[in-house]
Amino acid sequence: MTVTYTARVANARFCGFSKLLLAWKGSIYKLLYKEFMVFFALYMAISVTYRFLLLEDQKRYFEKLAIYCNHYASLIPMSFVLGFYVTLVVNRWWNQYKSIPLPDRLMCVISGGVQGSDERGRLLRRTLMRYASLSALLILRSVSTAVFRRFPTMDHVVEAGFMTRDERKKFESLQSRYNKYWMPCVWFTNLAALARCEGRIKDDNTLKLLLESGQGLNEFRGNCSMLFHYDMVSVPLVYTQVVTIAVYSFFLVCLIGRQFLDPTLGYPGHDLDLYIPIFTLLQFFFYAGWLKVAEQLINPFGVDDDDFETNWLIDRNFQVSMMAVDEMYGDLPVIEKDRYWNDSNPRPPYTAATVFVLRKPSFQGSTFDMTVPKEEMQFQPLEDIAENLEEPHNAHNSTALLNRLLSAAPSPASLGSAFTRTTARLQRLGRRPSCDSDSSSLNSCLCPDTQSTLCSCGAVSQHVPLSAIQFSAGE
């Protein structure tokens, strides 16, 4: 049975996972304790041999070998190899679970699409659903050891009621070297076409919904096919071998490299002699446990503690699907007004354990409580917005004007007077004189030094504040 602990971790609390560490079924202790005991026994055997059985020359050689192994053991990329492999296996494990064929959608379509309250209509609905269940049973029997142990032969399938004897004869009369889990799906389509001819299926759209849609036989058969291909195409054996060899070789090297050497000899990193390698044992527990997780999840159709409950799924799916298409066909409760019929603002009641929810404010959005200063709430005229958008271009023109004025200075000795004249000209430009037909206005825009016309309506003209022009005392 799959180990379920969801209710125990529904709420996060202090040391919430600590209670789970005491569980045995489905735990890492149950998976790893044998390998852990073997590793610890080998380590202690090598330690006793080094301390009491080797000669002095042999001890020196063993110490050099231990230092060498400890130095080069870090070259094995354990975290990368194991992490990528386990991620691949976990994704594959969950996708296999999503590929298990479930009849819930199909039984609803059959119950609503195949008409008739008489014995013929009941027979058609039950037979269609039984064919779908038979196809799922055949594929699960092909990939799951637990299901195969329950139905080891076709006689068991017939005796269980999933297949009649005549159907078994037809099933075995078709000679094919491939898995024939798809045959009940073909029977399903032929029977659906017959029901359409008899008028039990009222139109072609309902027949298409029953066969081709994502709620009909097409998806159900596709899930059966995916399970078959997951069973046939495994994770590449090369990758599994690489990960296994990496883990085992790393800890074989650690059996020698992590030995405690004589502290009196002064080897670097061997100042203590603790006899028991605590952190090496923890490292074995984590890395080897990681490999055990991948070993358990790579094929979830076995009899491990956390493998899928395929036999339970067969029982549940068969019973529910038959009840939906037979006993519940046309079974509709009396339609009546609900208790909130005259209430424009219905609100279901709360128990004393959940009444605190009413005290919480309703979420309106992340910006609902945001405040904006009052002066920033006023809409701005479009003319001012357009003028502000032109300021970068005008500022560039003023910078070019300043560069020309500074480059026209006659000598370093006259920088002071040039600065005075430049400031006066920029002040005149800041007044933005208008250019019209008046010649005096045109002469006011004439720069005597640069011999160019600078006008507020021309290409080169802009008000530059004096604060934008700063010179140091040395300049």
TrEMBL record:
Origin: domain of life: Eukaryota
Membrane topology: Multi-pass membrane protein
UniProt keywords, alphabetically: Cell membrane, Chloride, Chloride channel, Ion channel, Ion transport, Membrane, Transmembrane, Transmembrane helix, Transport
Listed GO CC annotations: chloride channel complex; plasma membrane
GO MF terms held by the record: chloride channel activity
GO biological process, one term: chloride transmembrane transport
Catalytic reaction annotation: chloride(in) = chloride(out)
Cited InterPro entries: Bestrophin, Bestrophin-like
Compartment annotation: Cell membrane; Membrane
Chief subcellular location: membrane
Transmembrane feature ranges: 36-54, 75-94, 237-260, 272-291
Keyword Transmembrane helix: yes
PANTHER family xref list: BESTROPHIN, BESTROPHIN-2
Protein task: Forms chloride channels.
Full protein name: Bestrophin homolog
Source organism: Lepisosteus oculatus (Spotted gar)
